[in-house]
Amino acid sequence: NIDCYLFKVNWQWVIDASMKGGPARFINHSCSPNCVTRVMDQRILIVAGRDIAAGEELTYDYRF
């Protein structure tokens, strides 16, 4: 298994969190995610896209 922690911010920037990353690296992919991404000043924010129940897994669409 090879893990990939790349996130394309825009046509010019890609963030590589393979060596170091925050807790967001544990959020899994879903085609029906409960979180969405927002880009602000070369930072990625992952925010709730809907109400999330306690204990529910956090997911977002990796767009692969």
Automatic annotation (TrEMBL):
Primary site of residence: nucleus
Cellular component aspect of the GO annotation: Set1C/COMPASS complex
Record's catalysed reaction(s): L-lysyl(4)-[histone H3] + 3 S-adenosyl-L-methionine = N(6),N(6),N(6)-trimethyl-L-lysyl(4)-[histone H3] + 3 S-adenosyl-L-homocysteine + 3 H(+)
Chain ranges of the SET domain: 1-63
SMART domains: SET (SM00317)
A molecular-function term among this protein's GO annotations: histone H3K4 trimethyltransferase activity
Biological process per Gene Ontology, one example term: methylation
EC number: 2.1.1.354
Compartments, record wording: Nucleus
Protein name: [histone H3]-lysine(4) N-trimethyltransferase
Organism of derivation: Macrostomum lignano
